[in-house]
Amino acid sequence: MRTKTMMRVLFTAFGWLLLASCADGTGVARVMISSSSTVAKVASFRVTVTSGGSTSDPISFPLASPVTLPPAQSIGLRFDPSHRGTMTIAVTALDGSGNVLAAGTTMVDVEPSKSVDAAATIAPRALQWTPIDGKTTADFSSVWGTNDRNVYIAGTDRLANKATVLHSTDGGNTWNLNQGFPNTKGIAVWGIDAGNVFLTTEGTIYLADTGDDWRSILEETTVAYFRLWGTYYPNELWAVGSQGIIARSNGTSWQTIYQDPSRSELDQIWGAATNDIYVPSPSGLLHSSDGASWSILDVGIKQPGIVWGTGSDDVFVIGAGDALAHKRGQHWTSVATGAPSQALGIWATGTGDVYLAGLQGLLMHSPDDGVTWSVIDAGVKNNLMAIWGSGPSDIYVVGEQGVILHGH
């Protein structure tokens, strides 16, 4: 049974104070909230109290600014004289979007006219990783979606030598298999939105603007384009590919705007905006602030290979071995993740959680923006080639021989 209680929030010297009273309160339970490990970007706490068989409505209240636990934070509950005995206090830490970061409970004995102290330890929510049967043994190399319902996975069925695309519109419960791409290997799927989803293959670029209806948008070319990034089709779209080429669509054709001196294949591109685009190359990490001219950034690691970010002030670059560079704000730092094998994909929530996927079933997690790392048992030894998520509790990892893992 739930009981509704009048609530208001005040800021005090010891943290945020949650006042709850149906009448004049005469007792206070002060709760110190700590974490079993790092919980970053906590924007609010949600609290429920159970006493005498009744549970209060959940109370959410924001912090003055996002915090990282540890150090501990405090909340206080003022209760009326009718509340006595044992209270169970449930505390949930939320990010700015309302996603659950960590949760925990504590119990405290309260009496009218007395103040008591309690300690609640919250633990980051551990994802459950579930294998998905996509009804194919294709080697998947990329995954992308618009939200938690609409997800695309792409790769190559090597036995049939065909690009393969799986598409789910119900959050991964069912998948539509599409292999209607003539004699070509699938490389990557990526999109701007639900009406502009692209598939790069060895021979051409396909566009799906109505669900699963794909059409080629690339004329005969001597360049094979491997990855795309952009903000608008057709004029704000960039591609990287063979011969070290970076090209841009002008609406009718692709124009080469840069060629890396190495003349090697370029297969990764990511941007935060049209004036903030990154391309890893054998020459170094290329960056453009205008979409046309390119320069090499020194980010403190060798052989940058994968780039991805959540925004202009939160960019990750995977290097050789266990090297990882991270741009936070305007500053780059480099760390060693301790990865036992090469990472090939990275995804982050933007609120502290970062995930790596890679060779030999590599799956790792960092709760603190890439500073510390732990290995997740993925339950497979297949090479995991790509990772993408719609949010902190909806993450897909794909790999060779049809491997699809769903973190939820």
Please give a structural write-up.
- By secondary structure, the protein is mostly beta strands.
- The protein folds into two domains: 2-124, Immunoglobulin-like; 129-218 and 298-407, TolB, C-terminal domain (Neuraminidase).
- It is 0% helix and 59% strand.
- It is built from no helices and 39 strands.
- The strands form eight sheets. Strands 1, 2, 3, 4, 5, 6, 7, 8, 9, 10 and 11 form an eleven-stranded mixed sheet that branches.
- A hairpin with a 2-residue loop joins strand 26 (276-281) and strand 27 (284-288).
- The radius of gyration is 25 Å and the shape is elongated.
- The two termini are 29 Å apart.
- The model is unreliable at 1-26 (pLDDT under 50).
How would you sum up this structure in a few lines?
This protein is mainly β. The chain has strands spanning 2-3, 7-12, 15-20, 27-35, 39-51, 54-56, 59-69, 73-79, 85-94, 100-110, 115-124, 129-131, 139-145, 151-157, 162-168, 176-178, 186-193, 196-201, 205-210, 213-216, 225-232, 236-241, 245-249, 254-259, 270-273, 276-281, 284-288, 295-297, 306-311, 314-318, 323-328, 331-336, 343-348, 354-358, 362-366, 374-375, 384-391, 394-399, 404-407.
